[in-house]
């Protein structure tokens, strides 16, 4: 309803001169205006491509992973979202030798894109999701639609939402790095490589929001599916945790479920995805996760099983949280250390 009202206002204003027009568009644009560019339909279109059989399960170092990396790079180029350092250089290459525990080590790359902050460009928020998966076995393709196609395409839509704000003169005050990491499944390699070879100094890295599996409903939540598991938000920073809760209260009807945030939870998810490499460097993190399900790490993790409306809500929550971290006056710090 809000979006409709905004378009009506823009149409009403269209009789005025161009400058006034832009002013009124800005005045009426809220974070929700940009969040509303994240749609279930676009997430679905991306994911059917990204988790297609032609990607062959996107195993680190294979042709399928290279094709997936190209998909991401082409998206950012089309959206005119820049590479962080050098024009059109969206890859952070990682040599084969780095993947020490891989059975057949091959070179790979993280894929990176960047939106420069308008007021505090040196302060960086890192959004991360791993884009490769476990490949093929006995001729069967492990599509990894949820793991982590869901996080990957959500990041594309989040990047597009921020870029829409940039084009409307409302870009984020702090900078945002979109970090698509490689080698997660074989040992969190891409995120470790990034934190050992950071493009921007870690001391200027304000927070990391990591998304790994946000397209499904875990069996234990079937009765109450309007949720997202949050892990780690209060471990290093009360400021981040409070911000996250405030944003969810204001912009989302999702239940934030902290079951797996318990120190004594035997699953130890806090240590099991890419955010951990940031957390161990004392950078506050939040890990967004739907829990495991019957198709986890199986060839049946396919895009037809994704809950796109729910994924849209989760992606919007992450967008709003990143928006607030990027724009609030005070910088998030590891205030619990
Ligand atoms: Zn994963």
TrEMBL record:
| Gene Ontology process terms (BP) | proteolysis
What positions does the domain Peptidase M28 occupy?
Answer: 110-320
From the UniProt record, which GO molecular function terms apply? metalloexopeptidase activity
- Per its UniProt record, what SUPFAM superfamilies does this chain match? Zn-dependent exopeptidases (SSF53187)
The family database entries (Gene3D superfamilies) matched by this protein are listed as: Zn peptidases
**Alphabetized CDD domains for the sequence:** M28_like_PA (cd05660)
Signal peptide as annotated in the record? 1-18
| Sorted UniProt keywords | Signal
Q: Pfam families this protein is in?
A: Peptidase_M28
Question: What is this protein called in UniProt?
Answer: Peptidase M28-like protein
